Amino acid sequence: MNKKLACILISVALLASATWAQNLLDNDYQKAGREFEKQATAAMDAGDYAKAAELADLATEQYRLSREAAEAQTLKFRAANAINLAQQMINDVSNGPKRKTNAKDIANATALLAEARKLFAAENWVDSRTKALASLDALKGLTGGETVDADTSDSSGKGLVLPRYYKVLSRPSATDCFWRIAAMPAIYGNPHLWQKIWMANKNKLRDPENPNLLHPGTILDIPPVKGETREGTFDPAKKYPALEQ
Question: For 21-45, what is the mean pLDDT?
């Protein structure tokens, strides 16, 4: 084993570490990889190039296992997040205004969610998330989905002109989130309507199934809920009328 080849192998191990180190959980595989990498560098400095190459291979393998473990954790998190959102959506619809289609849609969504939970227990994160998202989709028409129109069952806001767009801001404290935005008088004056904004803007989010991940600068579309007119972008210096609750 010559010095040049040993250097290449160690460089590969270092690249594997650098690519994932900032995004991985500090798991045992990552720790082992760093230790093998350290030993490989020491062997290289001592002129034992064959040993350095062997240790570099071990480091690369540990980083591969670390990456796979991190990816599995990411899939698990996304599945759990989708399940929690589906359950929250079912709860909100069950406790909201009753409609003729509610019972059937809720039953369908609940059945899909039960399948998602079974798949999650079996550690099938991908299919579990797919079922949970199907549960969410089953209730889309009852929660202000992506194609949201005015709620014709309540036109108490008719005649009011309120902002159609809202630009997400970052603040030192109480930074923007769907809950706080929905609570603003110029938006809905009701934080419990946050899902209407989320569902109408999922295609603008980096992680559509995670409403907690809302990035500053995102321009949100505010769907009407009580027959009000929505136009223009929210101006914090302007005084807006409030929707009746």
Answer: 78
